[in-house]
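Teaching assistant's notes for section 4

Start the section by putting this record on the projector. Ask students to predict, before seeing the second block, whether Putative surface protein with fasciclin (FAS1) repeats will look compact or extended. Collect guesses on the board.
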Amino acid sequence: MMSKTLPLMVMTSALALAACSGKSKDNVASPSTNPALAVPNGPPAVANPTVGGVPMMATRTIVDNASAAPNLSTLVAAVKAADLVGTLSGPGPFTVFAPTNDAFGRLAPGMVDTLLKPENKASLTKVLTYHVVPGVITADDLRQRIAAGGGTATLTTVEGDPITATLVGAVITLTDVNGNKSYVETADVRQSNGVVHVVNGVIVPKLS
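Reveal the predicted structure now:
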C-alpha cells in the first residue's frame, strides 16, 4: 500500500508547492506589470483571437484548435494521455481554461513527465478536468458573475472542486482550492463546442 500511496502524496505536494510558487512575479506575470493579460470590456470581437500566433477557427473543436497552437502542445499531450480527446471533441459545450506550455513549465522539474505516466492517469485527469467548466462562459459572463457576487464568482468544474474567479484590475483571475492563482492571458477563443480562455498558470484541485 505504501508503495502506491507515497508517489501520489509526493506528487500532490509537489503540484501544490509548484502552483503556490506561481503567485510570485518570477513565475506568473503580475497583471499590474503585464497589460497583455487585461481583458477588454464589451462584447467579444467578431474575429477569433489567435493563440500562439495561429488563427483559431470557431468551426473547429477545442482539441483541433489546441492541437494547432504551438504554445498549447503540453496541454494537448496531457489531454491525449488522459484519454480526454473524445470528451473535449464532443458536443459539450465546455469552457476550458487552457494552461500554456510556460504554465506547465513552472511546475517542479520532471512533474509533467510524471503526470503523463500511465500509472498517474487518474491524477492527471483530475488536474485537467479541474480546468473545465460545463457550458459556455465568456469573459463578459465572468465579469457579470463577479460583479453580481460582490467581487467573486464560484465556478463548478467538471472535476468537482470549485474555482474562484475575481478581477485584479481588468484581469480575470482564477484561484484554486489551494489558494493558488492563474491569470487569463487570452479570453473568448470561440470553438464549435465551447470557449477557451488561455491562462498562464496550472491550477490544482484537491488530490488524495
